Amino acid sequence: MATRIRPSNKRCAVIGGSGFLGRHLVERLVDRGYAVAVFDIRQSYELPGVTFYQGDLCDKHALLVALKDVSIVFHCASPAPASDDRALFQRVNIDGTRTVIQACHEAGVQKLVLTSSASVVFEGTDIKNAKEDLPYAKRPIDYYTETKIQQEKMVLEACSKENDFLTVAIRPHGIFGPRDPQLVPILVDAARRGKMKFIIGDGCNLVDFTYVENVVHGHILAAERLKTDSPLCAQAYHITNDEPVRFWDFMSQILVGLGYSAPRYHLPYMLVYGIALLLWLMAFIMRPLVQIKPTFTPMRVALAGTHHYYSCARAKQDMGYQPVVPLKEAIARTVESYPHLRKGA
Ligand SMILES: NC(=O)C1=CN([C@@H]2O[C@H](COP(=O)(O)OP(=O)(O)OC[C@H]3O[C@@H](n4cnc5c(N)ncnc54)[C@H](O)[C@@H]3O)[C@@H](O)[C@H]2O)C=CC1
Ligand SMILES: CC(C)=CCC[C@@H](C)[C@H]1CC[C@H]2C3=C(CC[C@]12C)[C@@]1(C)CCC(=O)C[C@@H]1CC3
After folding, report:
1. Rounded to two decimals, what is the model's pTM?
2. Active-site choice (144, 237, 260, 310)
3. What general EC class does the enzyme of this chain belong to (predicted)?
4. Among 86, 87, 191, 267, which residue's Cβ finds the most Cβ atoms within 10 Å?
C-alpha cells in the first residue's frame, strides 16, 4: 500500500502563492493541515497558518529563508503571459527556476512540483486529445511558452533519486475560477467594448478549460504521490477538467451568465489571423515610438480558433486523478464570483 504523507508533520512552500492559482493552492493546503510558507514578490492576502516571505525568486538568499525546514516546494510563479517581455520571462522562468532548484538543494527540500503549461506543445495548430509524449513545440507561440518549455525541462532533469530530490511537472490548460485576473476580466472587457459579437471560424473547435480547484487537486496529488519508487519522478502530467468544450460555447456561457450577449456572427479564421498578424507587425515596428497593445494578437486568435485539448489519462493512472468539480458547476461558481463584472454593475 502506498504510504501517505502526514500533512500535520509537513511544511511546504508555495512560490507564487499570492497569485490566482497559488492562493487557491495555499488555501487547500492549509485545509489539509499543511503549514505553508508563501514566497512571492507581493503579498495579496493574509491567512492563518501561512507565513509570507516577500522577495524575488531570482534571489537565492531570500528564497533560502522561506525554504527553511520545508520538504515540498510548489513553484507556480511566472510573469503574466500578456506582459510579452522576453527579458523578464528569461530572467524569472529560466534563470529564476535554476535559482529555485539550487535553493531547494541547499535547503534540503525533497520534492519540487512545478506548474508548467499544456501549451509547451502548442504551435498554433490543432491539438486533439494529446498525451504527454507529444514533443515540445519547435516553434512556441510566444516568449512565455518558449521559457515554460525550458523551465519544465530544467525541473524534470533535476530529479535525482540518489540525492533524495524528486521533481514532477503539472501541465494545466485554460485555468479559470473565482479571482482569476485574466480570463473573465479580458472577456468582459472585450464584451463591454463591443468586440464579442463575432465567432472566429466555425465555432466547433474544442478546448480544455480547467477549473482552478481541479488544478489544485492535481498539484496536491502529485506532491503526495511523488516517491522514489513511484512513476511520477521526472514526469509531466496534463491536468484538465476532462470535458473538452467548444471554445465559443464556453465563452458564451460565461458571457450570458454575466448578462452579456453571446457572439453570433462567424468570421473566417484565416482572415482574422491575417489581420491580427498585420496589427502585431505594425505594433512591433512602431514600438520605439508608441506602445500599442492590440486585443487581437495572433496568439489569441490561434487560441480562440483551433482545437487544443489534452488527455489526462496518465494523471488518472499514475496518481488516481479525477476532476473534483465538473465543468457545469465550475462555470456556475465562476459566474457567481464576479458580481462586479455583471452587465450594468
Ligand atoms: N492561468 C492559466 O490559465 C495557466 C497558468 N499556468 C501557469 O500557472 C502558474 C500560475 O499562474 P497564475 O496563477 O494564472 O498567474 P498569476 O500571475 O496570478 O500568479 C503568478 C504569481 O507569481 C508571482 N511572481 C511573478 N514573478 C515573480 C518573481 N520574480 N518572484 C516571485 N514571485 C513572482 C506573481 O507576483 C504572482 O503572484 C504560472 O506558472 C503559469 O505559467 C499554466 C497554464 C495555464
Ligand atoms: C484555453 C486557454 C489557453 C485559455 C487562455 C485564456 C485567454 C488566452 C483567453 C481568455 C479570454 C480570451 C479571449 C480571446 C482570446 C483568448 C482569450 C484571451 C479573444 C481576444 C479572441 C478574439 C475575440 O473575438 C475576443 C476574445 C476575447 C476573449
Report:
1. 0.94
2. 144
3. oxidoreductase
4. 191
